[in-house]
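Section 5.1 Outputs to date
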Amino acid sequence: MGGAGAEPLTLVSADGTRFSAALAPSPRPSPLGVLVLPDVRGLYGFYVELTERFAAAGYPAVALDYFGRTAGPGRRGEGFDHQPHVAETRLGWIQEDAAASLEALRERAGSTAAVAVGSCFGGTHAFLAATSAELDLQGVVGFYGGLDGSRRGLPSPPDVVACMRCPVLGLFGGADAGIPVPAIERFDERLSAAGVDHEIVVYPGAPHSFFDRRQDQYAEESRDAWRRVLGFLDRIAAGTEE
């Protein structure tokens, strides 16, 4: 995995918070960039590498860390105890940090449009970001994003589909005990009822985090998911060029 090297950044949110991010430019400028929303580990190495992988595919990307307010700036490694910090996050703060990250993507890579791609905790936030007029995303991708936001004091994505402003791609594991298939099917049905352009994919037998923590074990599913993400980006990019 990897392409153009990601640059470590310290960005400033609207409330003055300094937080870490990593930005990988693409070999050629692209009007469409990617906002990477990590899982509960924050700016973990996998997500820095994921920005590089997007850049190698032609889409500049920026990944953000969630914990500037409670842990200060910093890249997160195996020894970081993320759970107390996850509990302190707020939807508004994460969307402010996302807005600052998108501004960095515009300034440094020239991308004037963006798709958010999130995993787990970040997948939930990607789905919720689809409702934000300020972020004005062109699409969102959620890898096994939790559909019951109440556990973390968040809106539940199925409850806000009427407010979603852009296409949605949802990628789920059929053996994910935390996101049962009936809940995924209800999300799909509600997106359809709300008229949201979307695709929901369930990989039978795949667990939670199959793409980030278990790619070796679920290589076929991970390859297919990556193909679908790039196809989604290509479709959005074609629309921005019309």
